[in-house]
Specification:
The chain is an alpha+beta fold. Helix content is 15%, strand content 33%. The structure holds manganese (II) ion.
């Protein structure tokens, strides 16, 4: 048996190593910070909901480098969403929140880049979010930092500057559904696998970017991520 053509594996660098983390799936959590949920029109604590991006939507950016994200087609309203990304190292279904940490391989800084105009139209018409969320290069991501180095991340500043001006600034402890609870909920719907990435949601302050903008994201104890829109 041979492949008809070489299979392609999306992968993200591992911090402090030559190893690559092979990406299986990218799960994303919607409206997971109170103030962002409000700016998106939500009220009260809703159960977490999920959407996906294709694995090869990752745009890996090694430490100290500036990634280049092409401004996507079919939008005039590309938004940034800075997010803590959890990398899964051990799979499982129906994982209890109390056991979730055993399934975490590491963490990264990610951007859930969004064609907000297409997402808004899809919401209005009851259509899928795929074109608004799951497009090429829609998931810029830093190197993955192993949990053995970072420890368990439950709090710490998360921020994003655009061209040196602060756009998003919050704290991981403000997640509505924390990482452990998110893994518990998500693993009721899907059998998690090694290589899964979970974008855990963005704080308030999402806004548009344009060609030439420099996005500088960071999460305390995890790392940073720099991306230029080209
Ligand atoms: Mn998001």
């Amino acid at each position: 048996m041979t492949f008809a053509f070489p299979p392609q594996t999306a992968a993200v660098p591992v911090s402090g190593s030559d190893a690559l983390f092979p990406v299986h799936r990218i799960y994303c959590v919607g409206r997971n910070y109170v103030e962002h949920a409000k700016e998106m029109g939500a009220t009260g604590r809703e159960a977490p909901f999920f959407f996906m991006k294709p694995a090869d939507a990752v745009l890996p950016v090694a430490h100290g480098m500036i990634g280049e994200m092409p401004y996507p087609s079919m939008t005039n309203d590309l938004h940034h969403e800075v997010e803590l990304v959890v990398a899964i190292g051990k799979g499982g279904k129906n994982i209890a929140a109390a056991d979730a940490v055993q399934h975490i391989w590491g963490y990264a800084v990610g951007l859930d880049m969004t064609r907000r105009d297409l997402q808004g139209e899809a919401k209005k018409l009851g259509r899928p979010w795929c074109t608004g969320k799951g497009f090429d290069f829609s998931a810029p991501i830093s190197a993955i930092h192993p949990i053995a180095e970072t420890g368990v991340i439950t709090q710490g500043e998360i921020r994003l500057d655009v061209n040196g001006a602060s756009r998003q600034k919050s704290n991981i402890e403000k997640l509505i559904w924390n990482v452990a609870e998110t893994i518990e909920h998500l693993s009721k719907y899907y059998a998690l696998q090694p290589g899964d990435l979970i974008f855990t949601g963005t704080p308030e302050g999402v806004a548009a970017v344009k060609q030439g903008d420099l996005l500088e994201a960071s999460i305390a104890k995890v790392g940073d991520l720099r991306v230029k829109i080209v």
